[in-house]
Design a protein that fits this description.
Number of helices: 12
Oligomer: single chain
Strand content: 5-15%
CATH superfamily: Zn-dependent exopeptidases
Distance between the termini: 49 Å
CATH topology: Aminopeptidase
Number of domains: 1
CATH class: Alpha Beta
Helix content: 25-40%
Strand order of the largest sheet: 1-2-4-3-5-8-6-7
Structural class: alpha/beta
């Protein structure tokens, strides 16, 4: 698919995102630092760390009093992976996901951090940060106006020794060591980035999180081991016996964007997940990026049909499932409470 790129203005009235952007077309913020490919399906991808631009007008980020340490390593080929996902989804579904890309190097900006740490005081970097998140908000508004709910995926890359796709739901590696029974009864669902979906589906939260029809379970069935999934429900349960505790601690459970733009933050009915794609076999070559994109398309096809009851190819709503309701606490007393300590020792 050849995309027609238009120069889009980032300023728009709240609630007016739908109708401003045409699906399949590209829009840019100031100096083309931020790119938005508008979509027409309830899936949003953002890429905060894949950019390569290093303009002189934006100084390199430096540590501050509040943030003395900061990361500047880029997630190689995540921008290319997002473009492959866009093309593959268009071919597979006949519709386009929303894609938001930061084209600046991470030495200049980190769009997965709050603005003070992200932009280092640069006015141009701050503008790019605002544009990145406003485009995500625009996509969110368009999805909610169209289907009422959907899934936001913050796309990252990792090169951990154990080859796996890491799915972050704002649960830590330690929290994932809990048994299914604990996860189902402890209020973790209400604190996760798939809060809205967990409150509606008629299966226990642990099954939604790491069962055979979870995102990880469906990716595993396509040949991409994931964490969490049925075979790797937590970092400490990895089937690879050589995986040490240090390897387990490398797991990324989700960051600023996932919290901000998911149903546990300001995302409303939009759920979210931080997807950390491993390099070898996923991001390293064009062929692998295309293969993974197809596997993820097929995964989301099944995930949306099973849990959201939405046909991603037609947009039609499916009849509700008749499975046992999930056990999920109401909001009362959950937001202010701290998650219980994991019952399984480390």
């Amino acid at each position: 698919m050849i995309l027609v790129c238009l120069l889009g203005l980032i300023a728009f009235p709240a609630g007016a995102a739908q109708g401003i952007y045409q699906p399949g077309q590209c829009y840019f913020g100031r100096s083309n630092y931020i790119e938005y490919i508008a979509g027409d399906m309830p899936v949003i991808f953002s890429v905060p760390h894949g950019g390569a631009l290093a303009p002189a007008e934006i100084p390199d980020r430096k540590g501050t009093g509040r943030f003395p340490e900061y990361a500047t390593i880029s997630d190689a080929n995540t921008e290319e992976l997002a473009l492959a996902l866009n093309q593959t989804f268009r071919a597979y579904f006949g519709h386009s996901p929303h894609v938001i890309i930061c084209r600046l190097k991470r030495t200049k900006i980190d769009c997965n951090r709050e603005i003070e740490e992200a932009a280092g005081g640069s006015a141009f970097a701050q503008q790019a940060w605002h544009e990145f998140h406003q485009y995500i908000n625009a996509a969110n508004q368009a999805v909610v106006a169209s289907t009422g709910r959907g899934l936001y995926i913050d796309l990252h890359g990792q090169s951990h020794p154990l080859k796996r796709v890491e799915l972050g739901y704002l649960l830590t590696a330690q929290q994932l060591t809990n048994t299914d029974a604990v996860l189902n009864q402890s209020g973790y669902a209400a604190r996760s980035s798939i809060r809205a979906l967990a409150a509606e589906v008629r299966i226990p939260f642990a099954e939604l999180l790491r069962g055979s029809n979870s995102l990880g379970g469906l990716l595993l069935a396509k040949g991409y081991p994931s964490l969490p999934d049925p075979l790797m429900p937590s970092p400490w349960n990895a089937t690879n016996t050589k995986a040490a505790v240090q390897e387990a601690l490398l797991y990324f459970g989700g960051g600023y964007n996932t919290r901000l733009h998911s149903s546990v933050g300001q995302g409303g009915p939009m759920d979210g997940v931080q997807l950390e794609a491993n390099l070898e076999g996923v991001r390293d070559t064009a062929v692998n990026r295309t293969n993974f994109s197809l596997a993820l398309a097929q995964t989301l096809d099944g995930f949306f049909a099973t849990h959201y009851r939405i046909n991603l190819k037609t947009g039609a709503s499916l009849p509700p499932s008749a499975t046992k309701p999930a056990e999920l606490r109401s909001d009362a007393g959950v937001r202010s409470a701290q998650p219980p300590s994991p019952q399984k020792p480390l």
